[in-house]
Specification:
With 252 residues, this protein is α+β, with helices and mostly antiparallel strands. The chain is 18% helix and 38% strand. The protein has a domain of 115 residues. It starts with 6 loop residues before the first helix and ends with a helix.
Amino acid sequence: MMKRLPRKIAGTVTVLALTGLTSCGALDRLTSVGKAPTLSAIESPVEKPGYRPVRLPMPHPVAYSHQPNSLWRSGARSFFKDQRASRIGDILTVNVQIDDKAELENTTSRSRTNNEDLGIDALGGAVSNLAKLLPKGAPFPDVVDVDSNASSQGTGSVDRTEAIETTVAAIVTQVLPNGNLVIEGKQEVRVNFEIRELIVAGIVRPEDISNANTISTTQIAEARISYGGRGQISDVQQPRYGQQFLDIILPF
């Protein structure tokens, strides 16, 4: 027959359980048990919490002159109207191409041995006096005898391979004073109970945008690329909250 826990212990366990449910969004996740993850609402990136306009050193503005009775406008990139993204709210396609591979191997080894002996005969009569203090028959070695030995060896290696190839549409959220465009794009794809999420943001030059209104990630400055997932599969791959907490606070 099972014994009931004392009220104080049972109350403590209940408080800890409720704290674990309310922390880290566990309570919200329990309400969606058996349901597919919900897609995020479409919203303006500027209105997201934590959004801050990009501020970078800009060159001095250049004054453009307009010639009267001329069809050519100073500073224009083409004679006809450019259909590529150039204003806030315009959309362009980003070709995400990441093929990264790194292999590093490092081995270090160090060894050192020291041996020092120092002896002074008689030592002004002090040796004989010291010998009297030792037990009978105990040897009296050299006055100073130092021997040390130290060695260290380390080995490290890194083998990493990453490959991502996909496309995502991004929105121009800001036009910098020098004409460069700040873009941000987000794509969510739900497959069964798993959501794959791709986020791309950075700064691009209008001249690098192709005639098809596309640009490669290699031409994006201050690029921020995130590719991951959330759902049941991602939850299984991650350690439990308690284990993550212990990994942070435990010193060993």
